[in-house]
Write a structure and sequence with these properties.
Layout lengths: L2 H11 L1 H11 L12 H5 L15 E2 L7 E6 L1 H8 L14 E7 L7 E10 L2 E8 L7 E3 L2 H7 L18
Antiparallel strand pairs: 1-2, 2-3, 3-4, 4-5, 5-6
Amino acid sequence: MSTRQGAAIAAVVAPGLLGVALAGCEEPLQPVSEAPTLLAEAGDYTAWARPKNREERQPVVAPHGGFVDTYINDVVVADLAMVLPEGLAEWSDGATVVLAGYDAMEGGSLVQVAVMHKQDGVWAWEQYDGASDQPRFAGRPDVCVGCHGAGEDFVRSFRLPDPPKK
């Protein structure tokens, strides 16, 4: 029997089955969800801890706004509390640092939010203009990697824990 004959017989013998097959295709498609941004995952970062010597807004020459508030998640807090004989060579996976950049030391307008997050040994960044909830850029932009490469495991605002003093 040819393919054409088989198709004709199937169409005559089982017209109900074809309707069942097509009905499954008529279900509404579910939207493809995008991965949440680092900023969305951070949530209310302003409730996070602040690194030592960064408890208050600091003037900076970095491109994050003239004055920044620095926030660290619980992973960074735990890393900073580690007392290892050799110190800490790198930040742990899950480490997140948020810089909120302002145009004035007191008050002022939020001009930028920068988020950096380490996962699987690799840092990723996002940068937002003002109060935008959409990143201006994300991932491993050359501008971030190039500048942060001068930091200790890419963090420039504060240092990795040193070995304990003897």
